[in-house]
Amino acid sequence: MEFDLDPDLTAASSFVADWPLSRVLLMNDARFPWLVLVPRRSGAREIFDLSEEDRLTLSREYCRAGERLKALTQAWKINIAALGNAVAQLHVHVIARNQDDPVWPSPVWSRGYAVPYEPAALAKFLSRLVNGL
Amino acid sequence: MEFDLDPDLTAASSFVADWPLSRVLLMNDARFPWLVLVPRRSGAREIFDLSEEDRLTLSREYCRAGERLKALTQAWKINIAALGNAVAQLHVHVIARNQDDPVWPSPVWSRGYAVPYEPAALAKFLSRLVNGL
Questions:
Q1: Contact A46 B77 (CB under 8 A)
Q2: Per the domain annotation, does B94 fall within a domain?
Q3: Could you say which of A60, A66, A83 has the minimum Cβ distance to residue B107?
């Protein structure tokens, strides 16, 4: 089956890269540097729906995303989560958090509203991610 | 360094098992079947603070916990997350969610208050987990 990205994820994000397993997206919310990794496997909803090999690749990919996002943004903490209550397609959030961010220490979901990036700021941050992840 | 469980996690949970890497806990909140896996590695805050080998073991352990918790509880969705904004010690939430649970589809954190299990219900569920995970 071909891989199709969920339309809500598509609408809320920008493309960063295709890694061996996952498509890497940047969520369009300037409140938090927020990546989403979407394994290109049709029909997967849970991490444990993936094959053993894909599970390990996913572990490597969210660790790579988390480590490098932390270094790039000097974040205090990285939140890594596979929830999928609203969007069924398997996806893993990798979010840079700081003690002075707008919803700290709460998780980011269902808290306030996304603040879209200014176009120039989005282009600049995407370029840093493309080169730095 | 010896492994010490964070006092807030200790107070909020019951011991289920020690797996090769992680201590498995049941959170004392009857609203959601909610496990927490705590890798027995002192000083780790992020998954990527772990060695490559421990990262893979952790992936196996949260998949095992998620798959079996889903089967035991007939949950609609499993939420798997390493947040650590409030409790610094690395821990991974594995939470069984249903479309009729009290905070669906929001994530469970910072939503309402924990509802402690009745002692008999806790003992019964712990026994099912000890045998079924």
A1: yes
A2: yes
A3: A83
Evaluate whether residue A132 is within a structural domain. Answer: no
ipTM over 0.90: yes
What is chain A's percent helix, strand, coil content, to nearest 5? 35, 25, 45
Q: Which residue of B has its CA nearest to A44?
A: B77
CA distance B79 to A27: 20
Tell me the pLDDT tens digit for each residue of B74-132. 999 999 999 999 999 999 999 999 999 999 999 999 889 999 999 999 999 999 999 99
In whole angstroms, how far apart are CA B131 and each of B4, B68, B76?
25, 11, 22
Total CB pairs under 8 A between chain A and B: 92
The boundaries of the domain holding residue A105 are: 7-123
Q: Decide if B67 contacts B99 (C-beta within 8 A).
A: no
| Subunit contact B107:A109, Cβ cutoff 8 A | yes
In a domain, A74, yes or no: yes
Question: Model confidence over B50-77: pLDDT tens digits?
Answer: 999 999 999 999 999 999 999 999 999 9
For the domain that residue A107 is a member of, what is the CATH number?
3.30.428.10
Spatial distance between the Cα atoms of A133 and A35, rounded to a whole number of angstroms = 11
Helical residues (DSSP H) of chain A, grouped into ranges: 7-12, 52-73, 119-132
Please state, in angstroms and as integers, the Cα–Cα distance from residue A103 to each residue in A64, A67, A109, following that order. 25, 22, 10
Neighbours of A99 (CB within 10 A): 10
Secondary-structure percent of chain B, ordered helix, strand, coil, rounded to 5: 35, 25, 45
Spatial contact of B124 and B118, defined as CB atoms under 8 Å apart: no
- Give the closest-approach CA distance of B40 to chain A in angstroms: 19
